[in-house]
Amino acid sequence: MSTELNTSVGTPTHTVVRRKKLFTRRDLTGYLFSAPLLIGIVVFSIYPMIGALILSFKKSSQSFIGEWAGLSNYQYVLTDSLFWQSIYNTFYMGILSVILGVSLSFILASLIHNISWLKWRNFFKGVYFLPNVVSLVATSILFSFLFNPGSEGLLNYVFGIVGIEPIGWFTDPKYARFSIVIMTLWGMLGYNTIIFIAALTSVPKDLYEAAEVDGANWLKKWFYITVPYLKPIIIFMVIIGTINAMKRFTDVWLIGGTAGNPAGSLMTAVLYIYRNGFLSSQMGIATAASYILFFFILVLTIVLQFTNRKSNFD
Amino acid sequence: MNKRSLNRSKVISDWILTSVLLIGSLVMVIPFIWMVFTSFDWAARLKIPFPPRFWPEEFSIRTYQMAFTNIPMLKYMINSLIVSVGVILFSLTSALLSGYAISKLKFKGANIVLLLALSTMMIPFEMTMIPQYLMFAEFKLLDTYWAFFLPALNYAFGTFLAKSFIDQLPGSLREAAIIDGASEFTVFIKIYLPLCIPILATMIILQFLAVWNDLLWPLLALKTPDKYTIQLGLAMFSYNKDLPLPSVIMAATTVSLIPVIVLYLFLQRFIVESIALSGIKQ
């Protein structure tokens, strides 16, 4: 690969000409080592992204050779009430689960972090994280029984003891989204908590000591030292949580089927993409919807990153 | 405040915190306890009993026999294991080689490769799944495990993890070995690979959990029931059922969780640390 680059244009001929190689052996080895990753990125990230963009402008065929459809796929998706319903549901569940999840796990992490006994700390970390290693399939199946709408469901039975009428958790459009949020919280709480605990241990101890000298109580210390110090991590958790919430599919598909039952209250954006792409083979519409969803995710991420940057100037 | 009363108040607050967290822990584990007990309850095979109970009325392992006759659980678990092992091999090879190259070889364009990897990490799988599906359909690789192994090469997060880890290892090891006439590949295999075992273990855990628990791509890529992964098999069995079969489904779900729970019991602290590390790193 040594290219005959004569760098000595216009120099007298009697000087020694240094030939500079464009790529050294070491560079080539570097590319050879990176080849599996680069092939992976090109074939499974870049090409599909371009492919999806092309498909979204094609008449709903299953190949790239189909007729051009102009903007009609996007027009179809943006005027489809089912799509907007799916976006609404996705956001509804997303916002609820992120706000509740981040705040609850932050409190939980603060509690666990403040126990002086290491054994108990590790025990609680282990227990609260346990639901996180359980698959979403198992969780959904399990909760569809615990949230059984009849009075024989465990949760309704407990409620019944207190005198609350049985609630149709996953069968009542009023409660279905909220029930999914509860299930998500159970599964995700431990993940956020563990990351918060790791962040809490990195807060410099002398800050607290200085505050104690000034006579601050634990609440003041928590509010004026811990919260500001953890702000970047909190924002990060919100971003991750939001992105994950935007991609909700497995649980709603298992519980509400492809129609997002009850009454379409569990129809989410990815479920909409799945329906159009894999049930009715409308790949053009499905990819257009996925690009609109991607746009939503991108905007959200940028907005949240911006909040993060701004908070660092304070 | 003297020291003694301060210590006493600390002990009291510790007890209060522990009690509160114990009650919370109960909420976390009750679903599991109910699942395991119900899975042994022959009386609950057709419908959930009223009033709900934990201890089985008719303790029996016949529910498990029914689960295994209805769903080829063992086959699905072996399938899941094959997929997991393959994905781990492909993704770790890709991540380690590229991470090492970016960190230690410092070739021209290493930063561009890293930037490319980091930016593609942001792309959700849901965005690329349709073209990826069509691509595998084109090459007649749907319904084979190649549909899982090949995309595993695109493990940018692993590259990032490996690179940050190898950054902390001294570069002088490589230089000395190269002067002694070793090839770049030998240096990587003989010197750096053994030092990378901690990060390798972390990646194996993260990837195993991700692959074992995944549903969406198996649902799209696998057609023949014989090739189903455990999650897909379980999902298909419980999906759209006229008969709920509570205790049989609970038995199947329990069995599907055994590998992950056993792994968790043995490696709990390591898994928790891996997750914390990966979360902070991102």
From TrEMBL, chain A:
Belongs to the binding-protein-dependent transport system permease family. InterPro entries: ABC_transporter_permease, MetI-like, MetI-like_sf. It is a multi-pass membrane protein. Keywords: Cell membrane, Membrane, Transmembrane, Transmembrane helix, Transport. This is Sugar ABC transporter permease. Residues 87-304 form the ABC transmembrane type-1 domain. It is found in: Cell membrane. The lineage of its organism: Bacteria, Bacillati, Bacillota, Bacilli, Bacillales. The chain crosses the membrane at residues 28-50, 91-115, 127-147, 153-171, 178-202, 222-240, 252-273, 285-306.
From TrEMBL, chain B:
Its main location: membrane. One of its GO terms (cellular component) is plasma membrane. Keywords: Cell membrane, Membrane, Transmembrane, Transmembrane helix, Transport. GO terms for biological process: transmembrane transport. The keyword Membrane applies. The chain crosses the membrane at residues 12-37, 76-97, 109-125, 145-166, 187-212, 245-267. Residues 77-267 form the ABC transmembrane type-1 domain. This is ABC transporter permease. It comes from Metabacillus litoralis.
